[in-house]
Amino acid sequence: MLKSMVWVPVLGGFALSYAGKRSHDKNLIRNIQDDLGLTGEIPEYKPVSRDEKTIRLGLIGFGIRGKQLAESAGFVHPETLSKWKESYQKNKEEKLYPTIMGQDSLNVEITGVCDIFDTYAVMAQEAGANIHREGLEAKLTNLPKRYKTYQELIHAGDVDAVIIATPDHWHGPMAIEAARAGKHVYVEKPLTWSVAETYEVRKAVKESNIAFQLGHQGRQSETYIKAREVIQKNVIGKVSLIQVSTNRNDPNGAWVYEIHKDANPQTIDWQQFIGQAPFHPFSLERFFRWRCWWDYSTGLSGDLLTHEYDAMNQVFDLGIPHSAVSSGGIYFFQDGRNVPDVLQTVFEFPDRALTLMYSATLASNKERGRMIMGHDGYIDLGKSLTVYADSASTRYKEKIENGIIDPALPVYTYTPGIKSLDAVTSATSQYFAGRGLMYTYRSGKIMNTTHLHIKEWLDAIRHGTPTSCNIDRAFEEAMTAHMGTVAYRENRKTYWDKDQEIII
Amino acid sequence: MVLSSSQKFWLVVLRMAIGWHFLYEGIAKLANPNWSSVGYLLDSEGFLKGFFNNLASNSSVLSVVDQLNIWGLILIGLFLITGFLCQYAMVAGISLLSLYYLSHPPFIGMRFAMPSEGSYLIVNKVFIEMIAMVVLFVFPTNRELGLDRFIFRSKK
Question: Which of A355, B12, B96, B147 qualifies as a FRET site for B105, CA 20 to 30 Å off?
Fold first, then answer.
């Protein structure tokens, strides 16, 4: 009898140790969380109801980004879809196919497309007609109408709203035309190519009744939304320095995009491409790799600094900086471009007593991340959000001394897809998140931030709800980027005159 | 073969230590509402990579896998400690460990996001725990030192 019950003391010992461990962990979590005051709420996601009015979209520009935007709205070119399906069948980690197939319908239809390169225009029509998300087997009927000019598309009676994904020098004029015609606008970043047109776009949008969204899809990122909460609750104390970066190291990342084999003066409307840019004879390089020339582009400032700035504007409500200095050069991609491939821009916000420092290189991919540095702690903001206490923090001094907080370990981590407020951090989830093994989930579905960003704009069209990257945020984004660009190009410090709203 | 009492003693200690480990692994997962095997499954390498990735790609399959894992660990742990239906629990435990092993085999050239606390080549701690359970299976102690003493008494 006794022999059969040898396990009783062992199980008793287990129960006691477990109770001890649990109370220790709970105490730790309570201590840190009381201090942080974080709620751990994640944004709710409501799919578009089928009873909602169908919105008729016009697509302007169907290059790399235009194609992605159409996909995020639910319209994938059959050839692309077949490719995604194939690679998913080979490797289940390829998430493009399951993500698009699981993506909710936004209850929109594409009624018009415009691209000045014939091949892209036809592809846009085919994507727009692929309403059942099929591969090459798709039988496409009812192709959306192709317009030769954006003006005709904007003024078409069956277009309610437009998505603009053209080179930078066309963003402003197209957004203005659409706003004046009362068509809702989703326009890619940056808002404008020149300082002057920035005022015009803002005026046109404000005088109209349209829903406006600038294409900074990072606004939908759960980690930024959480970072904002962390800052608002003053978890890391006074922030005096924010460091953000761009780190790329491949031709595609440096805008050396492929030149399409069908492209030639007969298939491209070069006159229309030029627009307000200075005249230049037909050039395939300039057409496909337009980001490399100031004539059509805003360089690193407009393309990549804006993402970083807008993320920080989302977290901190920074507004337009007081001053900017820039330096850099064309150090690696000496391929005839005139925009820099290495750029540092430093913005000062004396009212907020902080500096935003941006550093970019297109020739090294060492990830420098985003670092928000406060007196009591710092935030490492990437695919996940990690908060550390500073070893010399005033606020956490006692807790650090008592061993409740270890400055070497995060006090708080937030990984999208995991509903955690995980003060006692799991190292593994950090590893997984850091390597991109975790995707953004909402209501149990893999989500793409661009899809959520477009959806927010469509919700605004239907219900008058606000968009997160509205025209005021867009104005701030454009002016900030222009201050950095002007500082670089004119080799001087630029200032923002708040009262007159001008760059001096 | 008749085992000496010290041989029996150490076999029982080994059985209970493994049981304890299983039980706590299960309970720790049960206690964490955010625990999921998704990252682990996606991190898989080796010839069963496709199988483990598939388990992770469907959310309903995944929740079944998670529950089986949690309760499998807890029950195997309890059965090992108490010596209840111990031989069956041992087979279940060996199977579970072989799945863990095959999902993250420490073979040459395999890289995992999952951090490992030691250095392994082919043999890792999962593998050793699995072999230890096989040893316990062929040297059973449960019919003498455990609840199975009651169950299998009539057959004796």
Answer: B12
Residue A34 lies in a domain: no
B59 at the A interface (CB within 8 A)?
Answer: yes
Radius of gyration of chain A (CA): 25
Side-chain-side CA neighbours of residue B153 (13 Å): 8
Q: What is the pTM of this model?
A: 0.82
Closest among A360, A382, A362 to A371, alpha carbons compared? A382
Q: CA-CA distance, A420 to A110, in Å (whole number)?
A: 39
Same domain for A112 and A211?
yes
Shared-domain flag, residues A198 and A168: yes
Residues of A in contact with B78 (CB under 8 A): 11
Model confidence pLDDT, tens digit, residues A52-110: 899 999 999 999 999 999 999 999 999 999 999 998 888 776 778 888 888 889 999 99
HSE of A81 in the Cβ direction (CA atoms, 13 Å)?
24
d(CA A422, CA A226): 13
Q: Determine, for residues B57 and A6 on separate chains, whether the beta-carbon distance falls below 8 Å.
A: no
Domain that holds residue A295: 221-503
Do A305 and A396 fall into the same domain? yes
Q: Is residue A118 part of a domain?
A: yes
Q: What is the CATH number of the domain that holds A135?
A: 3.40.50.720
**Model ipTM?**
0.89
Dihedral sign computed on CA atoms, order B20, B22, B23, B24: positive
Domain ranges of chain B: 5-151
A213 with A236, same domain: the answer is no
- Asked, for residue A33, whether it belongs to a domain, the answer is no
pLDDT digits (tens, 9 = 90+) for A303-319: 999 999 999 999 999 99
Tally the domains of chain A: 2
Side-chain-side CA neighbours of B126 within 13 Å: the count stands at: 20
**Helix (H/G/I), strand (E/B), else coil: A136:** coil
Q: Which of residues 93-132 of B touch A (CB under 8 A)?
A: 113-115
The answer to whether the beta carbons of residues B66 and B37 sit under 8 Å apart is yes
